[in-house]
Design a protein that fits this description.
- It contains 8 helices and 15 strands.
- It is of the alpha+beta class.
- It has 2 domains: 71-145; 149-385, Beta Barrel (Thrombin, subunit H), CATH 2.40.10.120.
- The strands form 2 sheets. The chain has a 6-stranded antiparallel barrel with strand order 9-10-11-14-13-12. Strands 3-4-7-6-5-15 form a 6-stranded antiparallel β-barrel.
- The protein is globular.
- It starts with 9 loop residues before the first helix and ends with a strand.
């Protein structure tokens, strides 16, 4: 009988590293091809072969689309930087022109030409103010384009400190007060065996993580995988009191949703779960991000990591943030990218497999009935550090 090879022996680790190196080299070559294609440097035969490959490989086509969007964004950023440099040069030139000049024998000169200088000064002031006004008008479109993306992690330290003080007064014992949570967000179950997902910025810097739902179920969890690029983190419950979830009522949509679809979410912008409803207002996210949707749901700090579902109860995204100063402009990472990192999870962890639900029991139910089935699988994620 052959000896059993340990799944994490040096040989298997060496093979895994070789595979990873091979994948990285292939991805580099593919991105090099995309760069040459977008730059128009391919010969006709090579270009035709590459375009044929795009027709048969949807993932490559999506990567090319994202790469084109990235290059376009970089070009726009460079143009803005050039405009800013020009405006700064104008300001510097104006300041130098407006600086007082030392004129020899100014007192004599002033007596001889006071009236002429007064007229000239008035004309100069009007010219300077006119130029300044023009520059400010030129800057306005640039300022309007500079939008800010806001992560929806809720800071709860002040609230928890106040609650801790009340607990101390009530108990009046020498027992130390519970450690207050620093931040909170939302997460939801991925599988019956204790996997969850939330936004990676929610659990960033956490020493420990606690999850809790409206039924009072409370468990300790830890982060097992992070995708910083898509702002997603996979959590796993590690609490001895956890025996598993019941059957999850939703499934994960693999195709892109349509513009104008009705969508809704559950989250924890406060201690109680809050329902929000709206529509899918764009199939791209902040500044044209193709990995996200824009939705017309008013959201607040604490909603990050919450589920985004369509009318039929299919999970289509994960709430991530909103645009500052614009109500109803929130964003959610598409479920396709969540499924992508779930597919990569077995390569990065030795934990039990993550088995996604295959049956949607929310379809055909009224919205209140959908929420009753859903709320036990949506958790407030409390971060301690």
């Amino acid at each position: 009988m052959l000896p059993t090879r340990h799944p994490f022996s040096p040989e298997s680790e060496k093979i895994r590293l070789q595979q990873a190196k091979y994948i990285a080299e292939m991805e580099y070559l593919m991105y090099e091809q995309m760069e040459r294609y977008l730059a128009g440097k391919m010969v006709a035969e090579e270009k035709a072969a590459f375009e044929a490959l795009l027709q048969t490989d949807p993932r490559l086509a999506e990567q090319l689309k994202e790469h084109r969007t990235l290059l376009h964004s970089m070009q726009q950023y460079g143009q803005r930087q050039q405009l800013r440099t020009k405006l700064n040069a104008i300001h510097t030139s104006m300041e130098q022109e407006a600086a007082p000049k030392v004129i020899p024998m100014w007192q004599v000169f002033w007596k001889r030409h006071a009236q002429t200088m007064a007229v000239a000064a008035s004309v100069s002031l009007l010219s300077v103010f006119g130029t300044l006004w023009s520059v400010q008008q030129m800057k306005k479109p640039v300022q309007q384009q500079t939008a800010h993306y806001v992560e929806l992690r809720r800071e709860v330290d002040k609230l928890k400190k106040a609650q801790t003080a009340i607990i101390k007064d009530i108990n009046n014992t020498a027992k130390p007060a519970p450690r207050p949570a620093r931040f909170s967000g939302t997460g939801f179950a991925l599988s019956a065996n204790g996997y969850l997902v939330t936004s990676s910025h929610v659990v960033e810097g956490a020493d420990s993580i606690m999850i809790e739902n409206t039924s009072g179920a409370k468990y300790k969890a830890h982060e097992v995988y992070r995708d910083q690029a898509h702002d997603l983190s996979i959590l796993k419950i590690e609490d001895p009191a956890f025996t598993g979830f019941s059957k999850l009522p939703y499934t994960f949509k693999t195709t892109e949703s349509d513009l104008g679809e009705k969508v809704y979410t559950l989250g924890y912008p406060r201690e109680d779960v809050v329902f929000g409803e709206g529509s899918l207002s764009s199939t791209s996210g902040f500044q044209g991000d193709t990995t996200a949707y824009q939705i017309s749901i008013p959201l607040n700090p604490g909603n990050s990591g919450g589920p985004l579902l369509d009318d039929k109860g299919n999970l289509i995204g994960v709430i991530s943030g909103k645009q500052e100063g614009q109500d109803g402009a929130a964003f959610a990472i598409k479920s396709a990218y969540l499924l992508q990192i779930i597919g990569e999870l077995p390569l990065a962890t030795t934990l039990s497999p993550l088995l996604l639900p295959k049956t949607n029991t929310l379809a055909g139910s009224s919205r209140p009935q959908q929420l009753k089935k859903l709320k036990d699988f949506v958790f407030v994620v409390k971060v301690y550090n």
